[in-house]
């Protein structure tokens, strides 16, 4: 294992330099859709034809819904195949839609592949775990009023953004995971990328009374994976857990802190839009549910579920040291709701 940790510093430094240079070139992080479109187009402009052909698909191609969070063959322009300027352009896209916290988590998850490779005692020429094995894909033509979208994806990351009318933007599914959840060994021992996602949920759980826990805990055993997995449309058969309306003021405050950990991964504009939609559907209609053990180091799962929103957190795999999280818009994943409205308006000549 030691021979892998020797090279971790150099590899991480390379990735961080690339990220840092991209950040420096975009000190004023764009928040508007047209600026995101310009950043995506700039990325495409710096790609050679060989990579651009891999990166671009028609908007209506089924590949747009072919999302996943496991190591597997993917379509798109691979980060590993890009030169330094192309990598900077790729990372600049992420900065247009994520906050500094969201950016930092994304880069840290990519870097974690090196640590995971060492922990699994993989050979140096084994690229199953690789911090550069991430893909950027564009669907349609960025900008204008015609539908278009883009995706950044690899192991434990799937970011999907869709523009339908030139004004509205869908930013889900948004998946972030971490394996290991807490680094058990090596120079970065104790590192926990998704720490608040666990700690705030546990703090909320500790605040519930025995009577409330009867509603909060929906199963003594946690599911082995997020329930909605990588399905095109997120659907839960029933609403379970305690409603926000049934929480005390202190519990509501902790619940909102947990909710904001997920929303704050997006840039301010997108986070505000998410919250507006949640509030319109009614904060009191949000539910918090827990399954599995309440002991640290034991398998556990929780979710935040409302009329428009589903957030899932699962930590059961690899001896409960392997986290999966996802944010889903139950009404508009992949922009399908606003896309339907767009086509309906065209059909009526509007």
UniProtKB/TrEMBL annotation:
The keyword Lipoprotein does not apply. It comes from the Bacteria. Coiled coil: none annotated. Transmembrane segments: none annotated. The keyword Ribonucleoprotein does not apply. Keywords: Signal. Residues 1-22 form the signal peptide. It holds the Pfam family DUF3500. This is DUF3500 domain-containing protein. PANTHER family: DUF3500 DOMAIN-CONTAINING PROTEIN (PTHR37489).
